[in-house]
Amino acid sequence: MEMKPLFILSRDDWSLHRKGDIDQKRHKQKIKDAIKRNLADIVSEESIIMSSNSEKIKVPIRSIKQYKFRFSSDDQQRVGQGNGDSNVGDVLGQSEKGEAQQGKGEKPGDLAGEDYYEAEVSMDEIAELIFEDLQLPNLKEKQKSELTHEEISFNDIRKQGIIGNIDKRRTIFETIKRQSRHKTQNTGLQITKDDLRFKTWEIQEKPTTNAVVLAMMDTSASMGTFEKYIARSFFFWMVRFLRTNYQKVEIVFLAHDAEAKEVSEEHFFTKGESGGTKCSSVYKLANEIIDSRYPQEAYNNYAFHFSDGDNWYADNEKTIQFVKELIKKCNMTGYGEINPFNRSSKLSAEMNKITDPSFITSSIREKSDVYSALKSFFGDKMKAASQ
Asked: Which residue ranges have biased composition labelled Basic and acidic residues (predicted)?
């Protein structure tokens, strides 16, 4: 005796019954695409950096408008039907009045300026788009392994399970096989309880490797408001990236003027400093920390330093010496110079002479370059080097 079907899959097109849901998904995809096109500006958006604890934030998007019903002009009929010969995309009505224009230059216009759409998205959504092409470069297996990550592996198919894990393809395949055996008439796919197939999974904890990242920032008097904001913007996203993608990565925060010191995360992102600049002090401290706490045979070490390049002239030679020592102990070392006036510093000139492939420099002239720096240090170039 054949079981009574749980439901029947109709051959009719049901898409018209869920147009609202389809339109909503299409609008969300447009928002996602618009955000991806403007990531360089969004990464350095002050409202985002200052709203690190907010679940939802508003992102200005100028390439998309809020969805709404749009009627014709007042002298046109507002009737939702045509004469039957229109196609998708055709303009059904157009005003015969003079075309209104926005004001340009010194000429007045009779329309308001172009509005932009503020999309409300979560920090996690933005972070996912920013981090999708980033990773810690050159990760290697080390003697001591504490850094792990969880992977969900769907490795079995069963006849029982929760409805959210139903395997639609296998379920329909089982239905087709059963109806073929019983030579059921062509009345649609009648899915029974015995046809249902569910995916099951296991959570596997896999060791990655140990990793420690040294975040080093120049906080001397020469670092103005813009320079400090740029440096903190980069480290804001770097810290979020590391904690989102790696469960046990360690981050050490180092701040320096003429002297370097290890500081708390709160101090690193909020406190201002003053005084002269000796970049050698932070590289010397970084070497000492790695030697005493994170030996390279047991850890994957990374170091990233941001400065305006305004270093004490007699300190450049010593700085380069400590940089070369640090490069030997790290999987990758990065130097970012904040250079809004497009000038060439002596420190940058010396840094660019270093040819080691695990050392990367980045010049930041404006806010949108923060995203470029993230991609330089964690992006495709280093991925290729690690493969």
From this structure: 96-109
Comparing CA positions, the residue from 223, 230, 235, 323 lying closest to residue 281 is 323
CA distances from 81 to 78, 86, 369 (A): 9, 10, 50
Query: What are the distances in angstroms from CA 158 to CA 139, 170, 244?
Result: 37, 10, 33
**CA-to-CA separations, 59 to 35, 49, 233, 290, in angstroms, rounded:** 8, 12, 16, 40
Provide the CATH number for the domain formed by 209-386 in this structure: 3.40.50.410
Residue with tokens 């679940």: 55
> Along the 387 residues of the chain, how does pLDDT read in single tens digits?
556 677 666 656 556 556 667 777 777 777 778 777 878 887 877 767 766 555 666 666 665 555 566 655 555 555 555 556 666 656 655 545 555 555 555 555 555 555 566 777 777 888 888 888 788 888 776 655 555 556 666 667 888 888 878 888 888 888 888 888 877 666 677 888 888 888 887 666 655 558 899 999 999 988 988 999 999 999 999 999 998 888 778 999 999 999 999 999 999 988 777 778 999 999 999 999 999 999 988 899 999 999 999 999 899 999 999 999 999 999 999 999 998 888 878 999 999 999 999 999 999 999 989 999 999 999 754 443 443
In angstroms, the CA 328 to CA 42 distance is: 35
Q: What is the pTM (predicted TM-score) of this model?
A: 0.65
The structural domains of the chain, with segments of one domain joined by +, span 21-68+117-126, 148-206, 209-386
